[in-house]
Design a protein that fits this description.
The structure is a homodimer.
Chain A lengths: L1 H7 L5 E5 L11 H16 L6 E2 L3 H14 L5 E2 L2 H11 L4 E6 L1 H6 L1 H9 L4 E6 L1 H9 L5 H15 L10 E5 L7 H8 L4 E4 L1 H14 L6 H5 L6 E5 L3 H12 L8 E3 L3
Parallel strand pairs in A: 1-8, 2-3, 4-5, 4-6, 6-7, 8-9
Helix pairs in contact in A: 1-10, 2-3, 4-6, 4-10, 8-9
């Protein structure tokens, strides 16, 4: 997600916060997710950001209304609506499968967002909690990731009674693109795989432009503030190791600032 | 752990707290584990317990000194020392493997406790973080659990250079006994598998007896307070579902009291 945003918006500065002390959010109750997401958002808003991108599907799916209400003077962009846009653009027959965390699937936000865009879409969803652990462990390829993908995805994607097989699969968790290769293997070539990173980055860009907030190259270069500031609530070493895999570039533990929420 | 305690101490009443809002502890830094463990312990002490059993290897391995110091008027029993007792009693050649969470392995508490009891023991340790997710997901048998066990345990248990193969394997995380069957398959019949639940329950009993705190059957029956009180920091439904697998008996969500730490 951060990777997509930086690639799309190279002149912007980013402050990224990982709530590493309390992750994963995906197994928590809605009340707790809302509380934690508001605390995380407040920490970012307190650092003078001009827009808030909620780069976590669980927080987006469960806590976006609360965040939008609390921080109503800022653009607040979640990943679910852009993900639903991408899914509806990709689907041929309107048969869409969504995978996410337990909380994302239970809350039904993707199901609502897709149905709002394409009434009559036939949606099925499954929680794939182990994918989160596999991505964090770095076991994103090989027989274990493959077997987990088989177990989660085969029953989800296939035809069931009157329901035809899914033609589109939404990766509704920011960890899941790390497993894209095995997901692709199991889903086969006929299923379009969508994640919300690129569409969300485009949505952030659109909203910044609309509100006249887009950085111009010259302004961004001035000032000397870093283009990327990394905050975490715990464990700089682990955040650096796991984050580097996600970001696709090395992170040193000393670059990570630990904050308390 | 709770199961072993209740079985060993049928006349005692138990208050069990699962910090479900913030689990897992095993991937957090030592500072955060200490902070969270002290908060959890304070919540239990505030509910008038007569002894504190730390039924989490990570909290025991990382935060026991802090808990013992803070709550010095109570017996505080962790699982690492009893686990080390069990390992040293079980090993034939002093070649002991320990598996646990990242934080447990990194902290080295098992390594120190075993060496203190058997100087010269040859100890190797590995973090098996995915086992936690597999246990929580209920995927404790079958090809995925088996493949994960192969990947973690084969290199750990085998001979390496001058180090002979391990003859004893310590399950240094309360989730791991859920995967005992596949761990046994991979470890083979020559490796003794020990977990700390039974030895910890015996240690709790010994300490209560020593301090004259053991409940007598007659007293325990009086009073009408429940024999088991379940507290969690989040998600009664999920706690009931996962907890029932661990406890080996059904738990209804309404039996779980949600508290804030």
């Amino acid at each position: 997600m951060l990777r997509a945003l930086r690639s799309r918006l190279p002149h912007e500065r980013f402050v990224y916060l990982g709530d590493t002390a309390r992750l994963p959010y995906g197994t928590k109750s809605a009340e707790t997710i809302v509380r934690y997401a508001l605390q995380a958002a407040a920490a970012l808003v307190g650092r003078d950001v001009k827009a808030l991108a909620v780069a976590c599907n669980t927080a987006s799916a469960v806590a976006l209304p609360a965040m939008t209400e609390r921080f109503s003077d800022l653009p607040v962009i979640g990943v679910v609506e852009p993900g639903a846009d991408a899914a509806v653009a990709a689907t041929r027959r309107g048969c869409i499968a969504v995978i996410g965390t337990e909380a994302t699937v239970r809350g039904g936000a993707y199901q609502r967002a897709i149905t709002a865009r394409r009434p009559g879409a036939r949606i099925r969803a499954a929680a794939c909690q182990l994918f989160v652990a596999l991505a964090e462990e770095g076991w994103t390829q090989g027989p274990i990731a493959r077997a987990a993908a088989e177990r989660y995805l085969r029953p989800l994607l296939q035809a069931r009674g009157a329901l035809p097989p899914a033609d589109t699969l939404v990766l509704g968790c920011t960890h899941f693109p790390m497993l894209r290769a095995v997901i692709r293997e199991v889903a086969g070539p006929l299923v379009t795989i969508v994640d919300s990173a690129a569409t969300t980055a485009a949505a952030v860009q659109g909203l910044l432009r609309e509100r006249g907030l887009l950085a111009r190259a010259a302004r961004a270069r001035a000032g000397g503030r870093p283009a990327l500031r990394l905050l975490a609530t715990d464990g700089a070493a682990r955040f650096a190791a796991v984050g580097a895999r996600f970001l696709g570039q090395p992170i040193e533990p000393h670059e990570v600032e630990i904050i308390d929420l």
